[in-house]
Amino acid sequence: EGRGTSNRARQAAFLHASRAHARVFCAKDLVCEAKEGKERNQGTQVARQKMDRSHSELVKDWKAWLGAWVESEFESVLPSTSASAVESTSETLLGTNWETDDKSVGVAPRRLSAGPHTHLVVLVNGLLGNSSNWECFISNLEADGRTGHFLLHPSQTNNMFGTYEGIDVCGQRLVEEIQEVVAENPGLQHISLVGHSMGGLLARWAVGKLYDAKKRTVAGLQPAHFMTLATPHLGCSGESAQPNHVPFIAWTPEPLGKYLEKAAVPFAGLFLKRTGEHFFLKDGLPLEQAVQNVDAGPLLFRMCHDCTEAPYLSALRAFHTRTCYANVSGDYLVAWANSAICHPSVLKTLEGLQKTEGGCRFIVSDDGLAAATDRCLQLDDELVSPSRTESLMLRNLNSMPWRRVHVDFKETVVPLLAHNHIQVTRRWLNWEGEEFVKEVVKHILELEESWKVSSGDST
């Protein structure tokens, strides 16, 4: 019995020792694999598992993964790559310096002269963007000598995967950011906002929360100009017949197109998370019930009303001018009617869409300066169906004047990148859109001069 017990003890000890040796050898194998550059695969898996982390943590993961990839892929070219060199190379490939602090990401706020700065211009990026997306806009505004009173502030708070957290969450960050900027610059008197894509929706949400109905001010400042570039004002729909349809779904041939229509909503919720639900109006009550109970309806539907939570429409109406820039073709994300805040049948009635004589080659139609202040789009009653929330959203947004500028990038090398050409999101890729950006800068200055003349303001 004693010998049997001893044998069992030795067997157990040997088993434990074997497992320990196995763990050691596994660890050695992992070290070898890491040295061979295979750790980048692990880095990718880790990054995918941490999609729910905060933006600053995701930035660290992605920089680590990309650094490992650079080191492994270019080992033969850079045999003695230092950690700082790898980090520098990864940042170059990413196109911007990603810091761990969200507020330091991208482009810093700009004062275009020594002062005084009386006009705050907030630039709001879209989905998966950051403040560096506005570099082309800012450099062109800097090149003009009439912008010395501007304080340009490219929003710093909604970056990359942080934009997945919902329009209200991102909008609240923007609200707090604007309040902070205003508090730090007591000489400010006026405020304007420019939003690209989802950034236009964030701007609409923020001004609704910052609006003081008694004083008719936004963040304590006089609202001046509100501008959007390729913004899905009506949200998104998988149905190709709707003004807020997603173009790339409509472009997909049958039968795949029908499957994409059905899969659009669940896929948007899966990949874009809460922001995807907001885009497709799947938060809150079902659409058919939202008509009777606005306060419980989807967020984008509420943002087309003055509801209990915020006077969204009144805040938008308080701006001296409103301008929307819309892609006629080539925008695979936002339909022409959606960004132009029009019914598709209204756009069909436009005569020919001839290019502006002597103007920017990408602008095919411009309602003109007066439309930004004193011309409302009249929708026929038959186009506004009480059973369609999109129709009601259109009617409410058109209860105030909008200047509509229709843009077509079909002459560019890659016209299907129109959604980013309109902002020049990345200069190395969307460089052809800079001609259009210069025209937008002219529009901003024209609106500013017109406003000063009408209000008798010399600042």
Tell me what you see in this structure.
It is built from 20 helices and ten strands. The chain has 459 residues and is α/β, with parallel strands linked by helices. It has an eight-stranded mixed β-sheet with strand order 1-3-2-4-7-8-10-9, sandwiched between helices. It has a two-stranded antiparallel sheet with strand order 5-6. Helix 5 crosses helix 20. It is globular. The protein starts with a helix and ends with a helix.
Strand order of the largest sheet: 1-3-2-4-7-8-10-9
Mean pLDDT, as a whole number? 79
Number of helices: 20
End-to-end separation in angstroms reads: 102 Å
State the main characteristics.
alpha/beta, eight-stranded mixed β-sheet, two-stranded antiparallel sheet, 20 helices
Quick take:
This protein is an alpha/beta fold and about 450 residues long. Helices cover about 45% and strands about 10% of the residues.
What is the element layout, followed by pairings?
Layout: H1 2-35, H2 39-49, H3 55-73, H4 83-94, E1 110-111, E2 119-124, H5 135-142, E3 150-154, H6 167-184, E4 190-196, H7 198-210, E5 211-212, E6 217-218, E7 222-229, H8 247-251, H9 256-271, H10 273-279, H11 287-290, H12 299-302, H13 312-317, E8 321-327, H14 336-340, H15 344-348, E9 363-366, H16 371-374, H17 389-397, E10 403-407, H18 418-421, H19 427-430, H20 434-455
Parallel strand pairs: 2-3, 2-4, 4-7, 7-8, 8-10
Antiparallel strand pairs: 1-3, 5-6, 9-10
Helix pairs in contact: 2-3, 3-4, 5-20, 6-7, 9-10
